[in-house]
Amino acid sequence: MGARVEFDFGEVKLEIExxxxxxxxxxxxxxxxxxxxxxxxxxxxKAVFQDAHVRFFENLGGVYAELVYDNMRNxxxxxxxxxxxxxxxxxxxxxxxYGFNINVTNCFSGNEKGTVESxxxxxxxxxxxxxxxxxxxxxxxxxxxxxxxxxxxxxxxxEEKGHLLKYRPPFELxxxxxxxxxxxxxxxxxxxxxxxxxxxxxxxxxxKAYADYLVVYANEQEVxxxxxxxGSHGFQLDISHYIKTxxxxxxxxxxxxxxxxxxxxxxxxxxxxxxxxxxxxEQLEKYHSLxxxxxxxxxxxxxxxQRVTTENEGVPKNQEAILHQTEATLHQLNALYxxxxxxx
Length: 344
Hints:
By secondary structure, the protein is of the alpha/beta class. The chain has helices spanning 46-60, 89-98, 114-128, 137-151, 157-161, 243-248, 257-260, 263-273, 277-286, 292-311, 319-336, and strands at 4-16, 19-29, 36-41, 66-69, 76-80, 84-87, 101-104, 133-134, 175-180, 186-189, 192-195, 204-209, 213-218, 221-227, 235-236. It has 3 domains: 4-161, Nucleotidyltransferase, domain 5 (2-Layer Sandwich), CATH 3.30.420; 174-236, no CATH class; 239-344, no CATH class. 38% of the residues lie in helices and 24% in strands. Strands 1, 2, 3, 4, 7 and 8 form a 6-stranded mixed β-sheet that branches. A 4-stranded antiparallel β-sheet has the order 9-12-13-14, with no helix packed on it.
């Protein structure tokens, strides 16, 4: 036990955020313990292949002595003659760091890693046949993790852990580069644009790019973090990065791309702040440390408090009545932003 684990990719069609597309399962399977593990990705690129290794070893708290692969591009760079293969240098780096041996199967010999091939089908059928619609990729990943926990109850992983190679800290996978900030307070990375704080316009920033996300640094401090965009010519904008600019030109807010990129925030603006961009920008500045759903929830809560306070001005205080009114309004706000199924 602990000697061998097999790896393979598998495809699965899921509906995420209302769009049906193909996602990829990185699957590991141990023939000895019958333990298997998987993680969901949007592609099968080199960064994903490497990330799947690091996540798997972190999940285990150790490393198998031998990792078995087929002749995928992330493993074999090129064939030399009939039997020799040149291995991918990034995979060799991983193997050197973690101490595992690389075993590549013969061409067209799926039976040499038959355990993982059957487990790819097993994961797809048991995790995503009945449930295949999700609000986000994170939700789909959480569902996969919970399903695997149930499916692995009969495995002998705990026994096998005693035979694994010693745990090592995560291998640093980031791609490092320096980029210039455009006049629109964005950086160009792999044909997409990502926002950074507008005070960095015209300056150089450092990027650490991972499989799913990238982190931006200026003066050795983290200034932005974005999920990677699939495809090209896309934008990912954080409205908190544009507060300085918006304070100078509040009238530009209503039809701005950055507001449109956050549907919940746009809904809040038109419902409560339309015609009052300065007030909205002040709230954004007040909660500049929040983003996305957390920011929307905070602004919605503030509006709730303001509404209840206004409606009860001049009325004798009845704590229980105010509480019921607050709860009813909160239900309405939650329903408006999709946080619960109905208004009651």
